[in-house]
Amino acid sequence: xxTHQLTEKAQGKYHYTIGPYTQPVLRVRxxxxxxxxxxxxFEGKIKDEKTRPSKVLEVPFLNPQSGPIYVEGAxxxxxxxxxxxxxxxxxxxxxxxxxxxPYFGGLTGTDFTATLQDPLPDLVRKVxxxxxxxxxxxxxxxxxxxxxxxxxxxxxQIDSINSLTAAKHGGNMDLAxxxxxxxxxxxxxxxxxxxYLGDGHAVQGDGEVCGVxxxxxxxxxxxxxxxxxxxxxxxRLENDKFIMSIGSARPxxxxxxxxxxxxxxxxVSKFGFEKFDAYFILSQIGKVRLANMVDPNYxxxxxIAKSYLPK
Amino acid sequence: xxTHQLTEKAQGKYHYTIGPYTQPVLRVRxxxxxxxxxxxxFEGKIKDEKTRPSKVLEVPFLNPQSGPIYVEGAxxxxxxxxxxxxxxxxxxxxxxxxxxxPYFGGLTGTDFTATLQDPLPDLVRKVxxxxxxxxxxxxxxxxxxxxxxxxxxxxxQIDSINSLTAAKHGGNMDLAxxxxxxxxxxxxxxxxxxxYLGDGHAVQGDGEVCGVxxxxxxxxxxxxxxxxxxxxxxxRLENDKFIMSIGSARPxxxxxxxxxxxxxxxxVSKFGFEKFDAYFILSQIGKVRLANMVDPNYxxxxxIAKSYLPK
Amino acid sequence: xxTHQLTEKAQGKYHYTIGPYTQPVLRVRxxxxxxxxxxxxFEGKIKDEKTRPSKVLEVPFLNPQSGPIYVEGAxxxxxxxxxxxxxxxxxxxxxxxxxxxPYFGGLTGTDFTATLQDPLPDLVRKVxxxxxxxxxxxxxxxxxxxxxxxxxxxxxQIDSINSLTAAKHGGNMDLAxxxxxxxxxxxxxxxxxxxYLGDGHAVQGDGEVCGVxxxxxxxxxxxxxxxxxxxxxxxRLENDKFIMSIGSARPxxxxxxxxxxxxxxxxVSKFGFEKFDAYFILSQIGKVRLANMVDPNYxxxxxIAKSYLPK
Amino acid sequence: xxTHQLTEKAQGKYHYTIGPYTQPVLRVRxxxxxxxxxxxxFEGKIKDEKTRPSKVLEVPFLNPQSGPIYVEGAxxxxxxxxxxxxxxxxxxxxxxxxxxxPYFGGLTGTDFTATLQDPLPDLVRKVxxxxxxxxxxxxxxxxxxxxxxxxxxxxxQIDSINSLTAAKHGGNMDLAxxxxxxxxxxxxxxxxxxxYLGDGHAVQGDGEVCGVxxxxxxxxxxxxxxxxxxxxxxxRLENDKFIMSIGSARPxxxxxxxxxxxxxxxxVSKFGFEKFDAYFILSQIGKVRLANMVDPNYxxxxxIAKSYLPK
Lengths: 311, 311, 311, 311
Hints:
Four copies of one chain form a homotetramer.
Chain A: E1 3-6, H1 8-11, E2 17-18, E3 26-29, E4 33-38, H2 53-56, E5 66-72, E6 79-89, E7 96-100, E8 123-127, E9 135-136, E10 142-143, E11 148-154, E12 161-162, E13 166-167, E14 170-172, E15 183-187, E16 195-201, E17 218-227, E18 236-238, E19 242-249, H3 252-271, H4 275-285, E20 287-292, E21 298-305
Parallel strand pairs in A: 1-4, 3-5
Antiparallel strand pairs in A: 2-12, 4-17, 5-16, 6-15, 6-17, 7-8, 9-10, 11-14, 11-16, 13-14, 15-18, 18-19, 19-21, 20-21
Helix pairs in contact in A: 3-4
């Protein structure tokens, strides 16, 4: 197994849409490890607390993605397993950014939930992030260092989807379980899978309610493996404690329906449950993570503890 | 402080709608404790696994409620605090019921999400429940005993709301945090508050996805207190670890918006946060519980750990 | 057949919730006609353009309803047919009101779609309404006189539903087809049906997007008839041109699903269509009216022209 | 002005995604007319009533699009006006197709509204279409010939969106107003605009409730013009009678919010209305068309009659 370096320099141009129309920046084999330098979601444009996001950010050039990474042997109908090995902060302090962007977020009218009201203000907070302490928000409040990758996915077959949107390919799920120790499974729709990732978050609450986490540039280490012949409808995730299906849609109940229905399917096909028994059991001990309530599609993960699965 | 007994006999007729048009069955003072015998959501009509729910259940006579309990001194503009002291199982084994009800649940078309498809089957599981073991679902799977009250609320001012629906008054929230050790705060809209409760669940997963938890009859002990002059828009909850605001609405994102917006308001008015600082902070460490995705309104609780609040 | 007068004086107290807990103000027989004096939705409190709605309106005392009218012979399982005979304006000029109410309407955050943004302004327009001209909005724009009843419904079985909300019982549908010449069918859930009505609109666009139509007091003439043994799930409507099923729910697609699914059922049970043939046909020539996108439940009517029905 | 022919042969390969990654098949100038041979949405694969759609249709190769057409002079920040001149049926009889596709449509669970229920059946109807008679559905029911283009749009800037989905670029709106006599305005995001179109419907009801209209191959004549410097957020439409803004989103209320908010903006910027006056006026005489309730995004058009606009 080889370890590859996907530095900023090797990456060159970052990407703002996830699809099959971009040349791979790296070719790897199943089982290889890649150390990726991701940029923060604002690509470093929000330099200080006087910056106004609405002035420096330009749609659709948001949420830059590393990749695509071509994984040899991956073909339509397979799954790509991506294990998150570690996520380290990168760049000079204050290296973390949180902000309000007009008409974006969970408690404001938006492009889609269109209203005639004035927007909330542009506001920026720049913060220090360390692995040891996390983020000191103020004298009293310290956020833990609980890093994860907000955006990660494989190329759709013929579509190309902006990096702000989550869908069947993964994408901007903003799911805090995509953290060190987790393996995420994505549908492969094109030769080589074409994996993109970016959007590191040093910490994030359920729902990412203001629209922005503690955004930062990272050095993220992943290991990729091809699972031949495992056709997935939606992304799935696994860690030491649970298995999770991930749905992204609007309204939010559809994201939940997708996640639970896919989890029932998984329990039946892989673990031998009867369909309605799985449905009954999830009704008693299933868990739900609201990943984001702010992106063009909302994301929900539904999970069941491994202790309830047969060995 | 007095302890009252609200037995089945004292209750007499149970209620299927929560409103101001029913005579109180009990009058108590602020600070009093009440030991309530609640019936299960099917009022014992699902006696065995051969029973077909669609045959024995009759809309709207579902989810019987104990009460209303009149709390002296409670008036419009106050809040009623209800502390859940304990929840004990009641009645002969198998005392627990789980079932599928046609066109009801999270992964089926319903009365509202109307489709032309055939329903899922009527299915019943009757199970033993003990405090010590929980529920032995099968030889391999044991659900823990994590009891809570599914339905609890105070009377609206002029409406009467069926006991299957959650709204500003509380009601059928199916929120697993309404468990021993928690205090729930409800808006008071009429003299005496008129508290109703029922719908004990021995355990339930996030979302209650099949529509039914492990339903059981309980002996539930609560303590009620009037908080004068605390006007609430939606129910709130507090335990040792966190404070939580509770929204009930459709689509699900509106339940989440309500919960988070109310939590911001609470953080500002009671704990001295600035509005947008609270919004930023919740975006990093807020937690979300999906209570139900099956009732006429979906319920979401948004919470923040007390460790982030000023002492 | 008798004609009854339900004047303001005979009505006495108006009602703000539709349910079984109110004494009838009038008893009539099937086939009788009633001339009803309805109040405007603000009960005349918005007297001039300087009035601020948020100051004079008090929740939940909004949208006053005439009735309930007890119709002899109506029993659970029947339908009540209400034919709108005529709607005349009432009271001194300017007798019409339109306004913006903070956090209410289609293009603003609301109680349910909760945001942190400032509200839109309180604004009031008082306008003259005549049957001959309609409403002269300004020198260039004249709205036609197309009056209808915004709120009308029969009592639920045990619930009482505020007069701002539409549901299975009818209620605040704000459906412009409830106009002279139309017959609306409601489910009967209690003895006597208990019919309530109010909320006259001199004209209203699809969706009632700002939340308020041209609200006015009316003299409305209706004829009521009991249809024995016709059990309805949702209200239906019929006029010279079409038959319509009416769904009220959130999200809006559920209102549409309800309306179309009920219309399929109606076409099958009454007009002899096969289920999927009805579905195919509606896909080609069904019509949709968005009644309101502002009330606690959105209302949609789905219809098919009578020319496509067998004679 | 030149008239171009975009025949099946000239088109060669049809496209299933709308984006900037495809070479134009035709270059035209502003003001030119193009006669386009569109294929039906199933690309002729549903040949008879014994065909099972689920067997012959292969996702994502659905809804083939003609184009892209490069319009000289069109640049980011402009609008492209497309006038529909005429739509003629094409190909041998029975040239029309209607069908049920499993887990697709308005009254069934779907990929997104995921349920555990069995699907509705695969069903196919093949029908004759003529301009003179329309479509004879059965001995009693004849659908009028009211043809329109279901899918039409310009390329997004960096995304490529499958031809089943409507969004800011237009796409699969299934809006019956896109018919002869109408001019539709699209945002231009890339050089040459890159116009795609297809998906002719011989007739379709509001909402396209079963998921499929009377689908047919057409010869469609359009005229395209560049409107320099008119930056649009969403598509707009104009005909002799009204102007319309078009929103596509989920849940359906967001599509309505987008459409009405955009229409307010249009009334203000082009016709001199004050913002809240426009809001008031639309609340009284605005009209709503539910275009589709079946595609990945629902589409709604909000319109105002030209008679209410200043000359």
